[in-house]
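User: New here, please read:
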Amino acid sequence: MLNRVILVGRLVRDPELRRTGTGIAVTSFTIAMNRNFTNQQGERQADFIPCVVWNKAAENTARYCGKGSLVGVEGRLQSRTYENQEGKKVNVIEVVCDSVQFLETKGATPKATGEDIQKEFDNASAFDIDDDDIAF
């Protein structure tokens, strides 16, 4: 049997760090990933995948990642069932992460867009370059 998952997406909200009764760290988060195609209205849809990570990786994920952070996760799919506060049975399928790679950290500046680069270029001061200044 094989049960491996590798995903790259953005956190939809800040990760939630909790501790078990014995003090083990567990962090839950959800990542969003755009689909590679658009629907009939031309809109791009996304999938929202719940994830959980344990121990030191859980502490680090909560510390260094926040809403919008780009992360890569590797782990396995797991299904579980619990009874909610209304007494209804709830089925959950989530990724239990073996590792979480921080592709961007909390507070990282977003990548510049083409418009940002053009504004920066337009505001740059002009200077002259002589043919002698070029090394080749």
Observations:
- The helical segments are 55-64, 114-123.
